[in-house]
Amino acid sequence: MLLREVEYARPGTIEDALAILGSNPNARALAGGQTLINVMKARAAAPDVLVDLNGLDELRTIGIGGDGSLELGAMATYSSIMQSPEVHSTRPVIAEVAGMIADVQVRNRGTIGGNVCTGDPTNHFPPLMVALGAEMTVRGPDGERSVPAEEFFLGVYMTQAGPGELLTRITVPAPDGQGDGFAIVPIGRDGTAIVLAAACVRANGTIQEARVALGCVDAVPVRASELESRLAGSDPAESAVREAAKGVAASLDPPSDVHASADYRRHLAEVVAARAVVGAAGKVRR
Fold first, then answer.
1. CATH topology for 178-281?
2. Most CB atoms closer than 10 Å: which of 38, 43, 162, 209?
3. How many CB atoms lie within 10 A of CB 103?
């Protein structure tokens, strides 16, 4: 289906982009467009103005902050993240996950900011950002504010980046002896996720601390708090982690759809959570 007529703006600065977004209630920011354009073709969204952010090079930067944190500009593409030495030297799991997304064409255009701001429960990066304890910098007419990733996602296609605002940067804390892991069950090769999980683990013989986030089991990423508590002080061996993961999805109320039933998603949540934790424990930096 062809796009309906829409106005197009390509601002040269973030301030210009915010001004356009703020003066048009039905304006939408256009990042890589890998989701938005298809949604518009399906008539599921009908913005009056597309505000193209591709001219804003300041949103494409990838760097390391003074405290060792990884700073990802919202317009950093999956391909640039995969190739970034800063990402590989700090949180390589982010590059690994970027490489799992769709195909080369999508990875060349899609952006990490677009991925998280879409708020799609099947997207890869939302649970990973929650597990890593990332901070999201949102800029609007009242200035900048920092939102923890765990509070950034509000519902399906809903985030803390509201009308007239832009996500400009994602800050991931410096690694402090942790290992990071990610696991996914997709539909077919490079397909839509049925369930996915991300984990950040600190261990030294035993697991001292774990952060585990699940995707596709609710409208927003869900922290597996019960599993995190069980893992504290436990053996990081796969058998012990799988035992700890048993039953942690019992309280979840995931959707049933054409891809999977709620019961199957609960089962998979335990499986992928254990995989992510085992993978993270195996990458702990000594």
1. Enolase-like; domain 1 (3.30.390)
2. 209
3. 9
Query: Would you say the CATH fold of 178-281 matches that of 60-172?
Result: no
Contacts of 200 (CB under 8 A, 6+ apart): 131, 132, 133, 178, 179, 180, 181, 210, 211, 280
Whether 39 and 32 have beta carbons less than 8 Å apart is answered as no
DSSP conformation letters of 216-245: SSSSS-EE-HHHHHHHTT---SHHHHHHHH
Under a CB-based contact definition with an 8 Å cutoff, are residues 63 and 72 in contact? Answer: no
Which tens digit of pLDDT belongs to each residue from 73-111?
A: 999 999 999 999 999 999 999 999 999 999 999 999 999
- Whole-number Å distance between alpha carbons of 241 and 206: 11
For the structural domain made of 60-172, what CATH number should be given? 3.30.465.10
Q: Which residues pair with 139 in a beta bridge?
A: 144, 166
Does the domain formed by 7-53 have CATH 3.30.43.10? yes
Whether the predicted pLDDT of 172 surpasses 70? yes
DSSP 111: B
CB 201, CB 133: distance < 8 Å: no
- Six-digit token string for 275: 């995989």
Distance of CA 259 to the CA centre of its chain: 21
Per-residue pLDDT tens for 254-280? Answer: 999 998 999 999 999 999 999 999 999
Kind plus residue range of the DSSP H or E element containing 184: strand 178-186
